[in-house]
Each structure stands twice: as C-alpha cells, then as structure tokens.
Amino acid sequence: MQTIESSVLRVAVSEKGAKVVNFVAQNSQIDYFKDVATQKALEVIFRGAEQKENLADILPWTVVDKGDSRVSLALIDDNSSYKKFPFHFEAILTYALEGSGIDIKFYLKNNSHKDMPFSLKFVIPVFSGWKVNTNANEIVLNKDKTNLTIASPNFTLTAENNQISVAYDAATLASDSDEDLRLSLALS
C-alpha cells in the first residue's frame, strides 16, 4: 500500500490493481472510500480489444516513483501476458494530489511494431446517499455540503447502476507510439 498526502487529502493506493482504496479529507477525517464494499467496487480495467482478462489485475504493478503527494506505478507486458495479448507495452499510472483533488494520469506506450487495440476503464462506486449530477465531461456527486467532482477531457463518463464508469473504449494505439489519458477527482 502506498500513501500520499497533502494538507487537504490523504490517499492510499494499492499495488494490487493500482486502485485507490482510501480517499480521506484531512480536515474532517472522512474517508470516502473506507467501506470494504466500496473498496472492492473500485477498479482499474485495462484490456486488449475482445479480451476478457483485466491486465491491470493479472500483471504486477511496480512503484517507479514516489513522493509525498504523488505515486507512479508501472505495468509492463511479460511472456504470459504476451500469449494472451500479443503486444509489447508499458503503462504508467500516476496519482498526484493537487489542491483539493487528485489528478490521475494513465500513460500508455505501444512498443510493438503493430497497432494495439485496447480499452481502459475506471469504475467508481456511487456512495449511499449521494446525488449524481451529470454535466459535459464531468459528474458531480453531492451529499450534505460536499461535492466530489469526477472530470476528464479524454474519457467518456457515465453514471448508472450505482457506479461511475470512466471509459476509453475501443481505442487503437499506433505502433511505436504513446498516449496520455487524464482524469481528476476533486472535493469541494
């Protein structure tokens, strides 16, 4: 478990699946992801096109950079993953605290000499008692006088079945190229 913090937030990230398991407001000590069921519902899903297995769950993540308010984890193909998903790739998922939120950056590099079809998805549960408001490129969860805003210029955001789906589906990354995808969660 990797913990990063600022004067506003404390966040814990699990190396297993590279997912956020604690999201604590420092002033109130409220952990928005403290519930075990909520933690299990949080997911990072990275897979090849038409592939059922989640590479983010089956491959090991390695911490490659760590500071007080940021952590970066890397996911790199191996022989067993190449048999199921015949591409050489590296992914770096960075969580960085900025102000009252967390910026999430997913960097993906295709090291193969062929185009790589993939999809990436973050699943965030809607917490009990929270109202959901959907706007262009953002979803705002509201409860009592607190807002949790989920926003992205890259991902498609949808709210249904008590969860927020942040998806980049049916994408193709050209051979020997890379891409940065961004998402943010902010408390107000």
Automatic annotation (TrEMBL):
Classification via Pfam families: Aldose_epim
One of the record's GO molecular function terms: carbohydrate binding
Entry-linked SUPFAM superfamilies: Galactose mutarotase-like
InterPro entries: Aldose_1/G6P_1-epimerase, Gal_mutarotase_sf_dom, GH-type_carb-bd
One GO-annotated biological process of the protein: carbohydrate metabolic process
Name of the protein this chain belongs to: Aldose epimerase
Native source species: Lactobacillus kullabergensis
Highest classification ranks of the organism: Bacteria, Bacillati, Bacillota, Bacilli, Lactobacillales
